[in-house]
Amino acid sequence: QVQLVDSGGGLVQAGGSLRLSCAASGRTFSSYVMAWFRQAPGKEREFVAAISWSGASTYYADSVKGRFTISRDNAKKTVYLQMISLKPEDTAVYYCAAESQPWRDIATMTEGSLYHYWGQGTQVTVSS
User: Which residues make beta-bridge pairs with 7?
Assistant: First the structure.
């Protein structure tokens, strides 16, 4: 079992930066694929980024590539999403997710239905 707590959201102007954090409980955090998803009002949840259990591999949605960076600290049981050059279209509730399939190619882990564990979400609002 893993419990996830998202934090770090807020209101920022376009072009600004934020860093989201997702703190996990559980003894096997280091074996989990971790990901960030987001959901804007009236839209479906969409994949943002994923990171392998070791942190060696990352994968991004085209819409955030080059602006967002996912990372993890297994000793702290925390995954991060550094966001720069934020745009109004990045406004959404951001959720971290975890799944214990360390053998999977993370490029195949872009569907929310593949993840069993979810954080409560943190709101990111980017003003123009």
Answer: 21
pLDDT in tens, 70-87: 999 999 999 999 999 999
| pLDDT at residue 106 tops 80 | yes
User: Strand pairing partners for 72?
Assistant: 79
For 26-128, list the strands marked E by DSSP: 33-39, 46-51, 58-60, 68-73, 78-83, 92-99, 117-118, 122-127
Q: What is the predicted pLDDT for the residue at 26?
A: 80
Residue 27 has pLDDT above 80, yes or no: no
Distance CA 86, CA 73 (A): 24
